[in-house]
């Protein structure tokens, strides 16, 4: 392929001509598509977000920070925080913003809940390095917690040897991924953004996607999964349950059937970080949680790995705020280790937590409905709303554009594209099933939620006032990028192509 550029006097002239081309070449395209292209261009320019495996010679020099080191790309929260900072956000002025992108629950007082501790005594000997699998007493406490909550009637019980303590969810996922062999790994779309990095970094995991659909309530088809295991040789199934970002949960018979796969030669890895954020239809359902631990027959034979944490399910009642626990067969925990606490959930606290978050969910759904934004499927768990923008006029129906427009009103959401687990970044953004979505968190306090919902109302009002075709302008570049530099990279790529 050859590109013919007109004669120019200098490289600066080329820059100007490309600017002019960008300004005029879309005459056949809609203004809405141009706005979408700008938002997506910003996304693609972020380190680690370029398509991979397309042309090894087209390397972005901004990503070559250290020879031999490849940028893994950023998760949704990290990218969106970076874009918010480019628009004036800082942790010093965060109270002026509505962060509906945060993946964390509010940490203030919960109505009708017991008071949270505000200090924890720490003995000197606890400052010593801990074992790689965690302090034995804490592992025993977690094992007892699972036995008491989910396995009272079971003969097979967890012990400390089934538990590994790590400093956070990503660390837990990393420990597990590091010991998985060269196998086909099943995952679903949409799902938790960090899985994208896990499936990209650990090359031995061969990712096999399954797209979930709102028509089936984002339900994982267990019978189809069984067929895929037989026909495709799936060795590992990775999923969040309850599911981030859709807010749906596998429970009852379906969860029992999914766990049973762990007795048939397939390892099931379930991320249960939102196991207590369950919103029942009736009062009798409050105070209960969901976990696959209930359906495991033998804790040392069933190939099921549970990843859970104290940072969400016991936020504020937690003597170890940054910890994540993993429960599995003894052998898996010992492998994870190579790469004193009495603990119990305060049921009164968990009950108040569920009631409070359900009330916040209903409040956000009501306000969105008043704005004409109907949610396809109300969340029954987690603290996220998976909002479909498809009915909005272009370009606001693009999750990236909607996100960028909200930044102008000091509000953060997460574009749905980040929940399209697309390890190689090969798929065109417009082809993504998550392209028209954003994730809205109702984890923050109610005042922050209202501030963010007011901002959504202002964006919709602005679209009516100026016309949606006039939106998608005035986006602030991130500090690490500027237009001239980006255009220079485009021209370098054109030169390489013309010499091919």
From TrEMBL:
InterPro entries to which the protein is assigned, alphabetical: Aminotransferase_I/II_large, AspAT/PAT-like, PyrdxlP-dep_Trfase, PyrdxlP-dep_Trfase_major, PyrdxlP-dep_Trfase_small
GO biological process terms, alphabetically, are: amino acid metabolic process
Q: Which domain of life is it from?
A: Eukaryota
Entry cofactors: pyridoxal 5'-phosphate
CDD domains membership:
AAT_like (cd00609)
Q: Which UniProt keywords apply?
A: Aminotransferase, Pyridoxal phosphate, Transferase
One GO molecular-function annotation for this sequence?
transaminase activity
- Which SUPFAM superfamilies does the record cross-reference, listed alphabetically? PLP-dependent transferases (SSF53383)
Q: Which residues form the Aminotransferase class I/classII large domain?
A: 97-313
Q: Which PANTHER family match?
A: ASPARTATE AMINOTRANSFERASE
* Family membership: Belongs to the class-I pyridoxal-phosphate-dependent aminotransferase family.
- Annotated protein name in UniProt: Aminotransferase class I/classII large domain-containing protein
């Amino acid at each position: 392929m050859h590109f013919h550029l007109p004669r120019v006097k200098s490289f600066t002239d080329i820059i100007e001509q490309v600017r002019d081309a960008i300004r005029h070449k879309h005459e056949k395209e809609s203004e809405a598509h141009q706005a979408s292209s700008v938002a997506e261009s910003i996304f693609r320019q972020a380190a680690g977000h370029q398509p991979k495996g397309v042309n090894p010679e087209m390397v972005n020099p901004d990503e070559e920070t250290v020879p031999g080191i490849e940028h893994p790309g950023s998760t949704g929260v990290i990218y969106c925080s970076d874009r918010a900072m480019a628009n004036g956000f800082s942790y010093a002025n965060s109270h002026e913003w509505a962060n509906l992108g945060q993946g964390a629950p509010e940490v203030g007082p919960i109505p009708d809940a017991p008071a949270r501790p505000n200090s924890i005594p720490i003995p000197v000997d606890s400052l010593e390095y801990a074992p790689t699998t965690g302090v034995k007493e804490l592992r025993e406490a977690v094992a007892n917690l699972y036995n008491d909550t989910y396995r009272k009637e079971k003969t097979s019980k967890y012990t400390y040897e089934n538990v590994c303590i790590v400093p956070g969810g990503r660390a837990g996922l990393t420990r597990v991924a590091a010991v998985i062999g060269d196998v086909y790994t099943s995952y679903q779309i949409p799902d938790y953004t960090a899985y994208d990095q896990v499936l990209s970094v650990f090359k031995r995991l061969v990712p096999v996607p399954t797209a979930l659909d709102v028509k089936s309530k984002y339900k994982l088809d267990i019978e189809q999964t069984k067929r895929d295991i037989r026909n495709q040789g799936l060795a590992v199934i990775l999923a969040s349950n309850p599911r981030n970002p859709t807010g749906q949960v596998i429970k009852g018979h379906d969860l029992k059937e999914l766990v049973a796969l762990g007795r048939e030669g397939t390892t099931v890895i379930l991320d249960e970080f939102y196991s207590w954020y369950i919103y029942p239809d009736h009062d009798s359902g409050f105070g209960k949680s969901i976990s696959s631990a209930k359906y495991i027959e033998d804790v040392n034979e069933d190939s099921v790995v549970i990843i859970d944490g104290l940072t969400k399910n016991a936020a504020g009642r937690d003597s170890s705020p940054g910890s994540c626990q993993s429960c599995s067969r003894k052998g898996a925990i010992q492998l994870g280790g190579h790469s004193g606490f009495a603990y119990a959930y305060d049921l009164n606290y968990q009950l108040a937590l569920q009631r409070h978050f359900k009330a916040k969910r209903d409040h956000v759904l009501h306000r969105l409905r008043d704005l004409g934004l109907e949610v396809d499927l109300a969340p029954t768990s987690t603290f996220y709303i998976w909002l479909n923008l498809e009915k909005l006029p272009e370009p606001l129906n693009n999750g990236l554009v909607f996100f960028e427009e909200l930044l102008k009103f000091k509000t953060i959401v997460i574009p749905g594209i980040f929940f399209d687990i697309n390890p190689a970044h090969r798929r065109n953004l417009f082809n993504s099933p998550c392209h028209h979505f954003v994730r809205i968190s109702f984890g923050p306090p109610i005042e922050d939620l209202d501030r963010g919902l007011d901002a959504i109302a202002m964006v919709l009002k602005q679209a009516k006032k100026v016309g949606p075709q006039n939106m998608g302008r005035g986006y602030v570049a991130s500090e690490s990028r500027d237009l001239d530099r980006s255009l220079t990279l485009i021209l370098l790529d054109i030169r390489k192509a013309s010499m091919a």
